[in-house]
TrEMBL record:
Top-rank taxon, per record: Eukaryota
Positions contributing to Na(+) binding: S26, N58, D126, S127
Protein name: Uncharacterized protein
Alphabetical keyword list: Membrane, Metal-binding, Sodium, Transmembrane, Transmembrane helix, Transport
Annotated SUPFAM superfamilies: SNF-like
GO BP term (any one): sodium ion transmembrane transport
Cellular localisation: Membrane
GO molecular function, one term: metal ion binding
Membrane topology qualifier: Multi-pass membrane protein
Length: 328
């Protein structure tokens, strides 16, 4: 084992971005998926237990998948007499080139090939279902006009997504895919969004209040460790990886092809379209407040949820009604 290669890889910003992105997508973090699906639970659902179970099963699945992937790559590298980094690169080539080559050498190769690609189809469909549900739920809960015309809204959204997706299956679609994958689907977007989510919940809404909410749901307090994660560890980790990756920034490439400057600008525009929405909304919300700068700041960061005026049964009753409506 060449420790110098390991040192070089760990100093790469791309490696840390890819690792963080894998965690984000495997848990559905920053995409609204967990919030949307969790909104269908009953009030007394043990969300703490479910979260721990999700973490255990997710990490176990990732570990098993990693063992399978590297065993296949190692096998192909051994049989072809090549280095591992010469066999395949991360991305679609791993699923559509390397794996089929390995599956073809198994007994009953046609059966395994069919099962493998059927699995890929179901993974893609399942990912789209939950991602779509997270996006749709956010819109229909925020604006009544989308709730009244929910089917039409979903149809329009799916049509637009389909047209955008068509660009990735053209002759140069792999280059379009790389731009979307490198700048928008992974990396800085999710890191920045998750940073502000943690800050919004743990500092503005309040970690102690959130802690009390969980206690009201499950009947006991989770470990204090999680409060420190919400307030310090997770925001610090997100910003550290984001800053490190920006310092070690490497332009997007596909094999030996280096994308032109206009393609990089397009990719950064896609990435910033999600990121800049947060400070723009904060500035507009702050400007709409009245009073001195200090009074505006205090009003802007104060939670609008007033416990003394909440009627718990009505609150959860309305939530259940909204969830039932979203299924219809």
């Amino acid at each position: 084992m060449d420790l110098r290669n390991i040192s070089i890889q760990t100093n790469s910003g791309t490696l840390w971005i890819e690792a963080a992105t894998q965690i984000f997508f495997s848990y559905g973090l920053g995409l609204g998926v967990l919030v949307a699906l969790g909104s269908y639970n009953k009030q007394r659902t043990n969300c703490y237990r479910d979260t721990l179970l999700l973490a255990v099963f997710n990490e176990a699945t990732c570990l098993i998948s990693g063992l399978v992937i590297f065993s296949v790559i190692g096998f192909l590298a051994k049989t072809e007499g090549k280095a591992i980094n010469e066999v395949a690169e991360s991305g679609p080539g791993l699923a559509f080139v390397v794996y089929p080559a390995a599956v073809a050498q198994l007994p009953f190769s046609r059966l395994w090939s069919v099962l493998f690609f059927v699995m890929l189809i179901f993974i893609g469909l399942d990912s789209q279902f939950v991602a779509l549900e997270g996006f749709i739920t956010a819109f229909v809960d925020e604006w009544l006009v989308f709730r009244r015309h929910k089917k039409l809204f979903i149809a329009v959204y799916c049509a637009i997504s389909y047209v955008i997706g068509l660009s990735t299956v053209t002759q140069g679609g792999m280059y379009v895919f790389k731009i979307f994958d490198y700048y928008s689907a992974s990396g800085w977007c999710l890191l920045i969004v998750l940073f502000f989510e943690c800050i919004g919940v743990s500092w503005f809404y309040g970690a102690d209040r959130f802690y009390e909410d969980i206690n009201k749901m499950i009947g006991y307090y989770p470990n204090q460790f999680w409060k420190w994660c919400w307030k310090v560890l997770t925001p610090l980790l997100c910003m550290s990886i984001a800053i490190f990756s920006l310092v070690k920034y490497e332009p997007v490439t596909y094999k030996k092809y280096r994308f032109p400057k206009w393609a990089e600008c397009l990719g950064w525009s896609i990435a910033l379209s999600s990121i800049v929405a947060i400070p723009i909304y904060a500035i507009v919300f702050f400007a709409r407040q009245t009073g001195t700068l200090k009074e505006r700041w205090n009003t802007a960061i104060r939670s609008t949820l007033n416990r003394s005026e909440q009627n718990e049964s009505m609150l959860y009753g309305e939530s259940a009604a909204l969830n039932d409506d979203s299924f219809s």
